Structure formats: C-alpha cells, structure tokens
Amino acid sequence: MTELHDLDALTxxxxxxxxDASATDVLEHTLERAERLGPxxxxxxxxxxxxxxxxxxAADDALVAARRDGTTDTLPPxxxxxxxxxxxxxxxGVPMAAGSxxxxxxxxxVDDGVVTLxxxxxxxxxxxxxxxxxxxxxxxxxxxxxAARTPWDLTRSAGGSSGGAAAAVATxxxxxxxxxxxxxxxxxxxxxxxxxxxxxSRGRVSWGPHAVDGVGLAAHGVLTRTVRDxxxxxxxxxxxxxxxxxxxxxxxxxAGSYLAACDVAPRPLRVGVLDTPVIADxxxxxxxxxxxxxxxxxxxxxxxxxxxxxxxxxxAEDWGAFAALWSVGALSxxxxxxxxLLLTPLTRWLRATGREQxxxxxxxxxxGMQRLTQQVATAWDAFDVVLTPTLAQxxxxxxxxxxxxxxxxxxxxxxxxxxxxxxxNLTGRPSVSLPLGWAEGAATGDGAGDLPVxxxxxxxxxxxxxxxxxxxxxxxxxxxxxxxxxxx
Length: 488
Prior knowledge:
The structure is a single chain. 37% of the residues lie in helices and 11% in strands. By secondary structure, the chain is α/β, with parallel strands linked by helices. The protein has one domain (4-477): Amidase signature (AS) domain (Amidase signature (AS) enzymes, Alpha-Beta Complex). Strands 4-6-5-10-11-9-7-8 form an eight-stranded mixed beta sheet, sandwiched between helices. A three-stranded mixed beta sheet has the order 1-3-2. Helix 4 links the parallel strand 2 (85-86) and strand 3. Helix 7 runs antiparallel to helix 15 and helix 11 packs across helix 13 (407-417).
C-alpha cells in the first residue's frame, strides 16, 4: 500500500476528497516526519503545529460536509495538502528571520499575497523552510539554522536559496513547498535534490499586495516531484493584482489551465542547445551535466522536436548588470543599523558593494538588463526553447562554497556553479529544471549511490504553458518517479 508521504500533491488532494484519509491524519504524518527527518536535511526553521492543526480541522469539516452534500468538485483544489512557506515570505504571526541573525524577532503582521493564495487553495502550512541569509547564495548554510542537505547524499548541499523547501519535498516530508527564484533559487535546489523547479515568467505571479517587483529579477513558485503538480500550483499562484508593475503575456492558452496544458502534446518545437557557460566563461562543466543534456537531446529527437546548437547570447562581462542589481538588492534589505555586524561576511560584502553603486551606475545596470533582454531575444529568436545544464557541477559539498574569509571569492565561485540560471531572471523568461540526468555512483556519503543532475529548459516570455507541456512530455518519456533518495 502506498504511504501518504509517497503521494504527489494532486493524488493526495484526491485521496482527501474521497475520504481515504483525513487532513488531520495527513498533518500528523507530516509533522512526525518533519520532526524526525527535517533536522537531518535542514528542511525547516520553524514548525507551526498549532496553526496547521487549526487549518487541518477546518479542512476536515469542509471535506465531510462536501462529501455529505455531493459537492466535492467545488472544494479548493488542494484542501488539506501540506505546503510549507519559505522563510523569506511573510506568514502572519509566524516569526520570520529570512535566514539572518540580524532579523531575528520579526513577526509579520500580515500574510504575503502568495500565502493568501495558497491558503485559499486549501493548503495547510506545517512550517517555514530554511533559507540562506536574505536568500542571496546558491547554498543554504545560514548562521541561524543547520545547513540544508540533499537526501541523496548528506555530505552535499540541497542548493539555495530554496534549499530547505527542496530538502522537505525530496525527503518526502511534504509533496510540494513554496519557494522563490531571483537568480536560480528554485532551479538550483531542484537540480541538487532531483525535483521539478519552475521559475515562471516575470509578471506571471504577483508580488502584491504587500511587496513589489523591484527590477523584476525574482518570481514566486514551488518545488515538486512532478510536472503536473508544478502546473497545478501555477494555476493557483498565477494571479495578477491591481497596480502590478509587470504582467506576463500569454497564459494557460487554449487548454484553459496550466495543468490541462500538460495533457496536450506540444507541436514539434525548435530547441536550441547550449552547454557553454554564459555568465562565467571560466566555469568547468562536469561531464555528468553534459551527459544529462545529451540524454535530453536524444529524448527530444525521439519525440519529434528539432534540435540545433544555440549561441552564447552575450559576453560574460556584460553580466555585470546583474551583479550590480544583486548588490543593491542586498543593500535594500531592511536590516537594523545596529544589527549589521550580525550579517554573514558575504551579505556584508554585497551590501558594501551596493553602497558603492551611484544612482547613475544603478540606472545603467537597469538599462543593461534591458539591453541583455534584447540581445538574448535576438540570439535565441530561432528557438522555442533553449536547453542547458541547470548547474555546471554536481551538488556542492556542504561548506565547500561558503568562504567567510573571502566573500568576493565566494561570489565568484557561485557564478561558476550557476553559469546559466540568472539569464532567465535578467530576461524574465520562464525556466524549469527537470531531473533528467543522473550521476551514477557519485554520492559520497552514507548509502552512496546516484546523484540527480538537472537540465534546464528556458522558453520565451509568457510561454509557461508550452514549457510545462514539453516538460510533461519529457517526464512521460523518461519518468523519474521510481527513483527515491536513501533518506526519506
């Protein structure tokens, strides 16, 4: 008999609607696993059993009434399904440190907009997931919590900045977890933990009503084990609010929903392939990352898509626009002046770099981002989708990238580790990491075995539905659901 924790979110929602389990049963199972396995993989910073039990009891009442009245088809789509929130996002009454000792003690008075949407979809929030300080690096090793580790090899990082969320889903504590992505923060941990991580198009998911888009680098999303779960949660989150700075073109298309788009085979697509690093031309690419791309090319060819080499869209030195915007973004975090020394060396270095940017330099960086968007659109105009590795390397060993003695060197190492992901953030394009590659026998910890290796598909702005349809087609052609990590 399939265990509750092995069910994906859509199947679990159906199980609850049928009455084969109660929301309270699911929550208690989730909390037991969170308490037992969560510390091993550094998944959570806060568990919220009281809030979650209140939500689960309300879900059970609604489920019982709907089954009695024959109205289960009108229930919220994920009633009773546990979905934790990344600790960069506000949940009313729940402490939020954003991975930083400098922000401890902050208790948000309101829910962020995406939290409201997830509540309205019926989800139960068992806790807040681990994140590095302010979500800045691609590893999750904050001073205020244990490192987030991939359950495939506990000596290696779950990535970042949605590392705790990825650890929670990959370890099968929860079927789905909220996260966000400003430079790869959903796709990086997806690759490190064998999950699906979609950064939606800029403007697809609103940052309102309590936050704003800024320059538009970041997007909210989820980490899941299946493409269909990712699509179904995009249906939940793809809401625009009055006054949004960015509104993505397109939408779910003729299928009517992103989930339904997964059931429509895409037309033959023109796929560009790029395995040369973009933002760090000195990055070494692990053979496993290249093999994962080759494997995906063979799948695409078998599915009838045309594949050709894609050019590097801009010189690596032009990426400086992202670095300037990133440092100013770090500086703009509301850190109390007397708490600055509590920040990690990397954050202090980024904030110091941000202070060095004049108004003119910042304006030039924004213009540079817009020019890069034009360059990428021109360079990749012949393609519907571009395929790259997600990461240049296998999941990093915990502690191997964080370098408190040399934060500038730490940041440079980050770019070599992630030489493709931030292109989609700069240009606003939808981009997804899929666990289609595996490094056999590469795990070095106890229970050594295979390590997941993600490949990344990046579409045109607004083509989220097409990207999901292609991803679902690839998942069907080479399913990964049968692979389970040793820690689960």
